[in-house]
Fold this protein.
Amino acid sequence: MNAMTENWVEIGSINDIPLRGARCVEHGDMTIAIFRTSDDKIFALEDKCPHKNGPLSDGIVHDGCVTCPLHNWVISLETGQAQGADKGQSLSFPVQMNGNKILLSLRAKS
Amino acid sequence: MKQKLVIIGNGMAPGRALEKLLTLAPDLYEVTIFNAENRVNYNRIMLSPVLSGEKKFEEIIIHGDGWYIKNNVTLYKGHKITNIDRAKKQVTSEHGIVADYDKLIIATGSTPFIIPVPGHKLPGVLSYRDLDDVTAMMLAAKSRGSAVVIGGGLLGLEAAAGLKEQGMDVTVIHLMPTLMERQLDPAAGYLLQQELEQRGIKVLCGANTKEITSDTDGKVGAVHLEDGTVIPASLIVMAVGIRPNSKLAEQSGLDVNRGIVVSDNMQTSDPDIYSLGECAEVGGMCYGLVAPLYQMANILAAQLTGDETAKFVAQYTPTRLKVTGIDLYSAGDFAEGDDREEIVFRDAASGVYKRLILKDNKVIGVVLYGEASDGPWFFEKLKSGENIREIRDMLIFGQNAVLGSTNADPLAAVTALPDEAEICGCNGISKGDIVTTITKKGLTDLAAVRSHTKASASCGSCTGLVEQLMTLTLGDSFNANAVQSLCSCTELGHSDVRRLIKAKQLKTIPQVMQELEWQTSCGCVKCRPALNYYLVADWPNEYADDYQSRFINERVHANIQKDGTYSVVPRMWGGVTSAKELRAIADVVDKFDIPTVKCTGGQRIDMLGIKKQDLPAVWKDLGEAGFVSGHAYAKGLRTVKTCVGTDWCRFGTQDSTGLGIKLEKFMWGSWTPAKLKLAVSGCPRNCSEATCKDIGVVCIDSGYEIHIGGAAGLHIRGTKILGNVSTEKEVMEVIVAVTQMYREQGHYLERIYKWMDRVGLEEIQKQIMDDLDTRVAYYNGFVYSQKFAQVDPWSERVSGVDKHEFNPLATLALEPAE
Ligand code: SRM
Ligand SMILES: Cc1cc2nc3c(=O)[nH]c(=O)nc-3n(C[C@H](O)[C@H](O)[C@H](O)COP(=O)(O)OP(=O)(O)OC[C@H]3O[C@@H](n4cnc5c(N)ncnc54)[C@H](O)[C@@H]3O)c2cc1C
Ligand code: SF4
Ligand code: FES
């Protein structure tokens, strides 16, 4: 699969997401959290902590990571990997910018 | 030229020896370490708190990478030594690295014993020894399946408690009739079993494992016992004992018995090769607790600098189990025998059991369960062999009873300990060592005492005692919380940050981080909420709350629940409600299909299980009935509990209900360092429990007794009396003023009682009760800040604030399946 055949969906503008915050995209049963970091990077993770499914979109965003609101696991926004001694991974999705528009691919990164 | 010292194994024992060597003679050796584990030296003892989630691996590292660089030590991580050539004085690692040595230390530790029952090699059967085991267990725990721990000793039980904490269904299988039979007598073992069972861990004693069978995909599926019982399990942890790891030494022709045989100065049968740690056998014994291993480390370090006087002496080591909430202590010999007597104390109601074993009027064994604070004192008696005939009657009741100090002076116990009394069992550090080091080196904080003396640096269970010793030695100049930095983004402590925010007029989070040289770009979950509070409290009219630095509850003004739904608690002023309010709640519950409605412990009603998107609509309906947010989520004013007082009660002395409502209406909406709970009771019968609140009022005939510094959660603390006043107006003034003082000085997440411990009740009394000008100034400060704070967050959100929080960014149509 190459980037050309990825299926990009426009989900909104970067301005819709608070700086160091997140918004959700509903896709059937799945919720995908879209994060915006302090340096205006956008990331997408399934809104489910690898620990006990906490809603990551409700966490605090810092340094390329989000801290889960339920038990403070720290999850990398880039890879979905739990940091430190915690082990686990949330699904992460490719994101592209087109000007202010955010494009999301619904095929999870592997 | 420096001599070459090579160390095989990088566990706790050689780590300690090296530290000691580097202090004694930093330049004597060129040191190279080979470690089979692919990581730096860490505190193996603390793996259990990592497993249970109480600590992170980073917190248990003893020597980080920087330490090796700083001390010029070469560490080969993930390099197992496969050969020692004694003739050439060379070692070779499995990756082919060859190193010459002048002196060699073998510290290969031990390997866990695996019972060779059929199935013991299946994937999913683990031992409990290193971080990889812990990581594998935590991963397995994600499936929330069932785990079986084979072995009911120290390690097995810590593993079981940790796995339970991680959400697994846990069964412990133990061969012997009671748990931890080597450290506990049957009575205490039984109490321990009961406690674990109460926590939901199943315990099977007298159970013999016959085989392990697999499930359909070839991983472990079940444990079969000799008696036919089958226990399904997706994870099996074997913790049945350890074996000294002496293979390498044996292959190279050194004398090996159970372990590597060393003399009492740690020398093996080859004079240039030393051994220490769990792999070493000294005086016919191998050891598996760090205290004796650290003794070996000190002797070896001395030896390597040419000091041959230090010799290993066998010692008793007390046992403690590191499972939070279980208090257990045992030491010495507690078998029964004709020549022994025993003193036993049981308190069934509170689950306390104490047993002392005496021989010739000397303590030779001690087992404490449920209440173990006297452990070190008994252990001291055991080691010194003191004749206890004179104090025998009172002995079992412990130090305070014997020394006649029934007063509550928390320092009485440590004051009375002799200098030789051992405080830190792991590191063999006595009271005298600690006190002398504190004075000699001018130490003022716990971290420094830890690094200089090692006391409380291993398993940590003596931290409280060490802090008491610091208080004893340093007096008021020591306070246990003083110098901790706010978080790892800065070196500054809370007080410094607060002071600098004021002094430098810092008014935004980025400004604070810039000016105070934060080491991260945008802070972390610890500092951002703290800074946000400090700025809100210090610049009420100017600072714009940083919404993204608040924990989710304070962002959406409801309490997040474990499934991601929310709970909503409206204010019910002073706990008083009405038919109209109850009807409105009932309507909301029906309309939004709210699954649970519950009376809280704070005299109001909680609606639980509300979907995030529904919150604004729920608030809209509640708001129409006159409700505002109860801030059940806030580091701010929560509840003011009241009793019925003079309105109804035959004993009421003042209008406690009315006063409580006044306080709540005056103070709601304010942000405080930690949560703030108040209560007003109508008489000293104290039905609203005012004496365990942050601030409480107990009404009396002559007026009002104002209390402060209580808590009844993680810690139970009775209040202290701040002072007595005679009018409601004064009550309001005092409470509001003391709250403002706390708002200005408290550290984020520090409740009033901790703040009070830090600044002292006398200081608070001086400023609030004695100095009326100061009191009024604080009062006015609070009133001013309320102008900006007393806004109902729910109605704000109903009218559209933070709408994005509650609505998805987009809802995508599902693609049809291809
Ligand atoms: C709802 C309630 C339990 C109940 O059903 O009764 C409750 C629920 C929670 N309490 Fe509590 N506490 C409740 C009364 C209490 C009380 C009783 C009281 O206030 O008289 C106490 C002991 C008194 C005290 O605070 O000293 C209490 C001591 C705690 C503690 C320990 C605080 C401490 O410093 O020791 C925590 C943990 C914390 O705050 O860090 C806590 C934390 C919590 C949290 C916020 C845990 C969390 O972070 O999710 C719970 C929120 C549940 C939710 O979403 O609603 N809760 N909690 C009570 C709400 C009272 C209210 O109307 O606002
Ligand atoms: C979960 C747990 C909890 C514990 N709790 C306590 C407690 O509360 N109190 C207490 O006193 N003790 C406790 N202990 C015991 C204590 O941790 C050990 O006694 C101590 O760590 C042993 O230190 P050591 O240096 O001898 O060996 P280890 O720490 O085992 O180190 C040996 C190292 O050598 C490496 N190695 C082995 N062979 C080779 C080779 N050929 N080449 C290179 N490297 C090699 C190994 O990989 C290992 O890293 C606990 C142990 C565990 C596992
Ligand atoms: S005691 Fe409080 S924090 Fe603990 S489970 Fe109950 S509500 Fe939650
Ligand atoms: S669910 Fe995320 S940390 Fe527990």
User: Anything to note?
Assistant: The mean pLDDT of chain A is 91. The CA atoms of residues 80 and 90 of chain A lie 5 Å apart.
